[in-house]
């Protein structure tokens, strides 16, 4: 058998990615989500309200890139949380193994990055030929901006947000896995919100920053980042709340109180610990039941812990904070020029507050 080693070593161009290597990602990506494609809806609504980009291909490409980043992060997140179900189905790592799933998730981060720094500048070049479309961050005519600038800006945006994501996720993991050691020095609510802004807010900020590259509007992207940050925080607070009270959520996750089973410091859990130092049903679940498997096998203790969180007022605190921040987001939205009370973005923000009271 003759080996054509010269052919092998003569190129640094990668072969197409094997479907076997992509299998964990492909499996997760085809599962229907439980949030009605919220991130793409947010992208479209933010564009309608602020950026006015009249090109469906641009929106679709940015939406696809963000979806790849999001789904890849879920592969890793499910491993880090020892989750068994995602979107009501077995997690990818339970089907394909942890090593291949980690590799698939990491690979798709780079696939998304490569696609972004290739496709977005190419799209920008196509739009350069169309008159009347400006460059959002500088307000200059498209013809005076080199497309390599778009590539550099895109790369910087994505790398910055991946750093934010991993910093936030890392803190979330550290607080969970070091709870015994940090019980005397728990994070504050403000520190928790900062973590969430990094971990969850990034995909909201990505929408804003990438849209700004193509926008004919002179609006400065920096003025929109606080709103995107707040929406990311609202989204996570809502998720923390529903994790403990919503039976539909239990169906998608397979268990009630998944955050408790994981030992995670969600907002209601953290608030409850900060305001109840004495031994309680919550302390028992988090400190005496040593592993997520122990907690999963003791649903009665989980139910008692959830009841304690409710009776302590921490669910009410979380609900009230959610409503307060939704109101703040609506005020921020209305403070921009040409407010539109009927805009889609406003509808999305209002929908975040539509949860049952504790």
UniProtKB/TrEMBL annotation:
SUPFAM superfamilies: Terpenoid synthases. Transmembrane segments: none annotated. One of its GO terms (biological process) is geranylgeranyl diphosphate biosynthetic process. The keyword Magnesium applies. Gene3D superfamilies: Farnesyl Diphosphate Synthase. It comes from the Eukaryota. Keywords: Magnesium, Metal-binding, Transferase. GO terms for molecular function: geranylgeranyl diphosphate synthase activity; metal ion binding. Belongs to the FPP/GGPP synthase family. This is Geranylgeranyl pyrophosphate synthase. It comes from Clavispora lusitaniae (strain ATCC 42720). The lineage of its organism: Eukaryota, Fungi, Dikarya, Ascomycota, Saccharomycotina.
